[in-house]
Design goal:
The protein is of the alpha/beta class. It folds into 3 domains: 148 residues, no CATH class; 127 residues, 60s Ribosomal Protein L30, Chain: A; 181 residues, fumarase, CATH 3.20.130.10. Helix content is 32%, strand content 23%. The chain has a 5-stranded mixed barrel with strand order 14-15-16-17-19. The chain has a 4-stranded mixed sheet with strand order 6-2-7-12. Strands 8-11-9-10 form a 4-stranded mixed sheet. Strand 14, helix 11 and strand 15 form a beta-alpha-beta unit. Helix 1 crosses helix 4. The longest helix is centred in the first third of the chain and has 20 residues.
Length: 505
């Protein structure tokens, strides 16, 4: 019989969460590196380069891969012969580990979890509680998987109750394009089939914890129906041409995972959950011999890529004009220098409420750009912690009023804009620029000054003034409403069937 000490369990969970905040799984890096080498779309290749460079920087600097450090999911398989030496419940021990990890002074992680989700939405301050799944199994060990799931990819989760005769492949191929790029491809699709509605969702999430092995599967061929389904979906989803960050390209998914479970004769429940470019999970086993501290990976597995800033057009944010905006074309790479303001969901909601009441805003947005970001707090000598973009479509409903009443020039965020946002951009001859989701630490190095200038009580959702130097962005929607997220995938979907694609084994 193994005895698991309370402190050993808490320390192991905390250490694993710190580990996954700055180390990508090596299998993800290897497969993304191979996809980077294969990629023929310049925009997608640039996005992948930023993700890979960012990942290596995080591994070296022990800082978060993404500013969204996720909501924690924990999967426990507890041996029935295990005895706990603890004053806390299993869930309370998990939450103690989460609290310790997210408040670590050398690598403080962003608290993103809100209590009272349909009401006041109050930040809990330490990213607790986690979502804990427990199975009792035979044995004398505790098998633990910890994961930190970003909100952008979790928001794209899908579920359907198909008829038994319906095609799962058809539903996936119809649904993936509706997810946009807010889940930060290239990533992994997890698909759960069967059981009941909640079981299918759990299967999909669990499948994302498995190693990436699609190239091995391609090399040896499928041994069963599930493996054949994985291969079919991998090929057909990539043939959609969505590409890295939705810019159009050869690789949208690095793997497709499928788990199934027996279901009722009248039902075919299917769930699909994507994992983003900030794929974060780790596995360890406690056997009573003390805490588990994971060994760091070898940086030799990370490609040595440097970012070529020479291809970007320098832009001075402090003197940019409407005429400059009109000259930018979808897909242009810009290097921003000067002052920009930040603001995301809570700040936009409050700004619009103030505008409705005729109250002055705390900052002047005339001629400025707003960056949709909720950064990680800085540590040591940092100006700002990881500060990557959040999903821009969530701000679409505010865009018309903000552009009309503030004199704002443009916006910077992640992924595509929806029809409402694009219509407002075209009407006001504004622009929308895209920063790469999954390159948060790389972006933070472009921030040379930062200060809070409004709504300080909102924490990471406060309005900051950033001064940046050579911050890389791509023109995603130009002043005429032309959108790269519509143009790019359409072009690459047409090209892919004519391009021989080599998949490394």
């Amino acid at each position: 019989m193994s005895v698991i000490e309370q402190e050993d369990f808490i320390q192991s969970v905390a250490a694993a969460l710190q580990y996954i905040s700055y180390y990508h799984p090596v299998d993800y890096i290897r497969h993304l590196s191979a996809a980077y080498e294969r990629e023929q779309s310049p925009a997608a290749k640039d996005a992948m380069a930023q993700i890979l460079i960012n990942s290596r920087m995080c591994a070296e600097g022990h800082r978060p891969i993404c500013q969204d450090t996720g909501i924690v999911s924990v999967f426990l398989e507890v041996g029935m012969d295990v005895r706990w030496h603890s004053e806390l419940s299993v869930e309370d021990m998990v939450n103690a580990g989460v609290r310790r990890a997210y408040l670590h002074p050398d690598n403080k992680l962003r608290a993103s979890v809100l209590a009272d989700p349909a009401g006041a939405r109050r930040n809990t301050g330490d990213n607790t509680p986690a979502v804990v799944n427990v199975k009792l199994v035979r044995g004398h060990t505790v098998d633990v998987i910890v994961a930190a799931k970003g909100g952008g990819s979790e928001a794209k989760s899908k579920f359907v109750m198909l008829n038994p005769s319906d095609s799962i492949v058809d539903w996936v191929l119809k649904t993936v394009p509706t997810m946009g790029a807010g889940w930060c491809p290239p990533g992994i699709l997890g698909i759960g089939i069967g059981g009941t509605a909640e079981k299918a969702m759990l299967l999909a999430k669990e499948s994302l914890m498995e190693p990436i092995d699609i190239t091995d599967l391609i090399a040896r061929g499928p041994h069963n129906r599930i493996e054949a389904l994985r291969l079919e979906l991998y090929e057909k989803v990539n043939a959609l041409g969505i590409g890295a960050q939705g810019l159009g390209g050869l690789t949208t998914v690095l793997d497709v995972k499928v788990k199934d479970y027996p279901t009722h004769a009248a039902n075919l429940p299917v769930a699909m959950i994507p994992n983003c470019a900030a794929t974060r999970h780790a596995h360890f086993v406690l056997d009573g011999a003390g805490p588990v501290l994971l060994d760091p990976p070898s940086l030799a597995d990370w490609p040595k890529i440097t970012y070529d800033a020479s291809k970007g057009r320098p832009v001075d944010l402090d003197s940019v004009s409407r005429a400059d905006l009109a000259s930018w074309q979808p897909g242009d790479v810009l290097l921003l220098s000067g002052k920009l303001l930040t603001g995301r969901d809570a700040a936009h909601k409050r700004m619009v409420e103030m505008l409705d009441r005729g109250e002055p805003l705390p900052v002047d947005f005339r001629g400025k750009f707003i960056y949709y970001v909720g950064p990680v707090d800085p540590v040591r000598d940092e100006v700002m912690g990881p500060a990557g973009p959040t999903t821009a479509t969530r701000m679409d409903k505010f865009t018309e009023q903000v552009l009309a009443e503030t004199g704002l020039f443009g916006m910077i965020g992640k992924a595509e804009r929806g029809p409402t946002g694009i219509a407002a951009i075209k009407k006001h001859q504004s622009v929308y620029l895209m920063a790469v989701g999954g390159a948060a630490y790389l972006v933070s190095k472009a921030i040379i000054k930062a200060r809070v200038v409004g709504f300080a009580d909102l924490g990471m959702e406060a309005i900051y003034e950033f001064e940046v130097k050579d911050m890389p962005v791509t023109v995603a929607v130009d002043s005429q409403g032309h959108a790269v997220h519509e143009i790019g995938p359409r072009q690459w979907q047409a090209k892919i069937g004519k391009i021989p694609v080599m998949v490394e084994s």
